[in-house]
Amino acid sequence: MMHRVEGAGITIQYDLQYKQVKHINLRVRPDGRIFVSAHRGVPQRVIDTFVLSKADWIRKVLERQQKQSFQPPKQYFDREEICGVIMAACEKVYPHFAKRGISYPKIKFRNMVSRWGSCHPGKGILTFNTALMYAPVECIEYVAAHEFTHFLQPNHSRQFYEELEKVCPDWRVRRQALKEISIRER
Predict the structure, then answer these.
(1) Do 3 and 45 form a contact (C-beta atoms < 8 A)?
(2) Which parts of the chain sit beneath pLDDT 70?
(3) What is the pLDDT of residue 185?
(4) Which three-class secondary structure state does DSSP give residue 14?
(5) Please, are residues 86 and 117 in contact by the beta-carbon 8 Å criterion?
(6) Scanning 14, 101, 155, 167, which has its CA 20 to 30 A from the CA of 30?
(7) What is the per-residue DSSP string for 101-115?
(8) Secondary structure (DSSP) of 113-126
(9) Which ranges constitute the DSSP H helices of 68-157?
(10) What gap in Å lies between CA 61 and CA 79, rounded to an integer?
């Protein structure tokens, strides 16, 4: 549902979606639309205050988007082959985790709006974004290693990144390459 908040000489219109989330999340889409997600229990005034506190950041993002001319990302794989490429990346990184007692998980694929993959350690499931077809294989291997590492460390703590570095020493470079690819609004 659409909301509007005014303050400090600015008016921000945003789409609010209630979800089972711990924090208030704010996203600016490439088309300039602003989306906010929050838990149903968060009062509207708290959400509005949060959005207003991000006004400078929103303005900068919108200005940057206007300066950039849209170029569609390079597509490395087609929809049919991306699942095979992701499976190959999983099989490549899995031996490191097998040595640590991790069972091979169930692998799923779907379109995601804001993430490349997700891990559900308790269920033994890894889900990968089919938009990885816009990423080179090195980045896909990084995403696979990142998600598998969540079986050892279910958070993004220092220990998580220490574990990730054991299997993917150049993860920072690969992550930066992924940040250059927009997975929204395809």
Answers:
(1) no
(2) 8, 68-72, 182-186
(3) 45
(4) strand
(5) no
(6) 155
(7) TPPPPEEEEE--SS-
(8) SS-SEEEETTTTEE
(9) 79-98, 137-149
(10) 30
